[in-house]
Specification:
alpha/beta; nine-stranded mixed sheet; about 375 residues; single chain; 12 helices; globular
């Protein structure tokens, strides 16, 4: 009797697994056109990828008191490094900044893809904005994260011997940064802020980053290539107020608009977990608003005023002020666009040869919007 019950349960489990697999396969996103340039760029690059976790501790700066949790005399950055195993030449370095209530691996799919093309990519859990922060995440600490980026660059450049897990050396003339959501704001500050920017940064990409209060004057401290990637159905960071403005305000910039893209659609965990939702940003709004003690744009005010290129226009939509009703784009499709945009953007700047840089620019400006219909690109040179 027990044997029959066991066999029956096993059969049920097998049926459930097979049905789940069938549903998964039937709900996969449409791929890039077969034989297209974009299909080729979405394939892993020529390098095998490894990753290691390490800890960098900045003894020179404290972690502030946070919601009743005592301050610490240092800032501890638990960091993941993705790197090409067999790269023998100097490699570019990309520092990624995670979003609010998130973690360093939120865009692991993009980090791994870049590493397969010869990049070393580093991402740290920021001390007070990651989802596991003791006392709860605190968005106000974003103003300390640009200096964390500088510290990470210093720390990675200083790795040597057995402490350096990747075989190649970092090319100090090819350092870029990228960031998602609050990490996108971190990216903008680290690239352009007159007091906090790091002059070693040669290119920057923001994925759905808050930027509405940054005026054109804010971006005039330096002229480096800047990319904004954003979705039109983003409920957390309004597309029109934060992304559509970039080509008008940043002198060397590109905007990748993803029709139907959402805020959570960029996060690696959304595929496949959230592919069945009409619009996943309700989950993101719940997580962010439950941890937000004040106006999320308040952090901008600590950076300066209109003279510094920061203007808090009262018409800027609040986080999660409205929830779009249209059905969201499949998250896998959104992540295809994101992977292709990031790789071709950085390759157009950092590739070894002029020919490769030109091919990357064409892939970014021409092939991406041609092959993935939800993407459109505005470029200001």
């Amino acid at each position: 009797m027990l044997r029959k019950i066991g066999i029956g349960l096993l059969g049920l489990v097998v049926v459930i697994i097979l049905l789940s697999l069938l549903v998964y396969l039937l709900t996969m996103a449409e791929s890039a056109p077969e034989g297209s340039v974009t299909e080729a760029w979405l394939e892993p690059g020529p390098y095998s990828v490894s990753s290691v976790d390490t800890v960098f501790v900045d003894q020179s700066r404290p972690t502030n008191e946070n919601k009743g949790v005592a301050a610490k005399p240092e800032r501890t950055l638990v960091t993941t490094l993705w790197f090409p195993e067999d790269a023998s030449v100097n490699t570019p370095l990309i520092i990624h900044s995670h979003g609010f209530v998130s973690a360093r691996n939120d865009l692991a799919y993009a980090a791994e893809h870049l590493a397969s093309y010869g990049y070393v990519v580093a991402a740290a859990d920021y001390p007070l904005t990651n989802g596991g922060t003791e006392g709860g995440p605190n968005a106000a600490d974003v103003v300390n994260q640009p200096t964390d980026i500088s510290f990470l660059i210093d720390s990675i450049l200083a790795l040597s011997g057995s402490e350096k897990p990747f075989p190649s050396d970092i090319d100090q003339g090819r350092i870029g940064i990228m960031g998602y959501s609050l990490g996108g704001m971190t990216t903008s500050i680290a690239s352009f802020d007159s007091k906090l920017r790091d002059s070693r940064i040669r290119a920057a990409a923001s994925i759905a980053g808050p930027s509405a209060p940054f005026t054109a004057d804010y971006y005039k401290t330096i002229d480096i290539p800047f990319l904004m990637i954003a979705g039109t159905l983003d409920a957390l960071i309004n597309y029109e107020a934060n992304a559509a403005i970039i080509p008008d305000r940043v002198q060397t910039s590109a905007l990748v608009r993803i029709d139907g893209g959402t805020h959570l659609g960029f996060a690696g965990m959304s595929e496949p977990l959230l592919r069945f939702m009409d619009h996943p940003d309700g989950l993101g709004c719940a997580a962010v608003l439950s941890n937000m003690d004040e106006d999320p744009y308040a952090a901008f005010l600590t950076l300066g005023n209109e003279e510094d290129g920061i203007y808090m226009d009262p018409s800027i939509p609040e986080v999660c002020e409205t929830m779009p009703t249209e059905k969201a784009l499949h998250p896998a499709r959104q992540q295809m666009i994101t992977k292709m945009a990031l790789l071709s953007f950085f390759q157009a700047i950092f590739a070894d040869s002029e020919t490769s840089r030109n091919e990357a620019y064409d892939a970014f400006a021409v092939s991406l919007p041609k092959d993935l219909a939800e993407a459109s690109i505005t470029i200001r040179q």
